[in-house]
TrEMBL record:
InterPro entries: MFS_trans_sf. The keyword Transmembrane helix applies. The chain crosses the membrane at residues 16-36, 48-68, 103-131. SUPFAM superfamilies: MFS general substrate transporter (SSF103473). It comes from Aureibaculum flavum. This is MFS transporter.
Length: 156
């Protein structure tokens, strides 16, 4: 496999994996909504999930960004474009996993409490993940690329 095809494959694979993470949250949310027999729309402060789920969601938003930025900063400007793409792929998947976790916990909280309110956290996390979907322009802006690498990447 030549370098250009490998680089394009890395980026396409990243988009597929990230899209699958989002799709998993959406499917699981829909299943939870359908399976709840007697839905409750209540913010019950006695329920531990009412406190844990929002705190985890907000915390993971900030933590995922912090971890992602840290991983992006560690990409050496002297690395090859393929290496930079692979490291970007890893950073993006880690960011997605940190955003996915509170969404799934919110869905589990919905199942355990029959409280549909928690699904809103899942929806919020899905929207945030969608907004942070990996794009070629984002890669070019966030990773330090030489002029030659930008030209090569634009041809993918």
């Amino acid at each position: 496999m030549d370098s250009s095809a490998q680089q394009n494959g890395i980026f396409k694979t990243l988009q597929i994996i990230y899209g699958a993470i989002i799709a998993g949250i959406v499917v699981f949310s829909v299943v939870a909504f359908i399976l709840i027999d007697t839905p409750v729309y209540d913010i019950d402060m006695k329920n531990i999930f009412t406190i844990v789920v929002p705190i985890m969601a907000v915390g993971s938003i900030f933590f995922s960004d912090s971890v992602y930025q840290s991983m992006i900063k560690r990409i050496s400007p002297n690395s090859t474009l393929t290496s930079k793409l692979a490291q970007y792929q890893t950073a993006t998947i880690v960011k997605g996993a940190w955003l996915e976790a509170p969404a799934f916990i919110a869905i589990v909280a919905t199942f355990l409490s029959n409280n549909i309110i928690f699904l809103f956290v899942s929806i919020l996390m899905t929207v945030i993940m969608y907004l942070k979907f990996p794009k070629k322009e984002t890669f070019k802006q966030e990773v330090k690329l030489s002029f030659e690498e930008k030209t090569e990447f634009d041809r993918l």
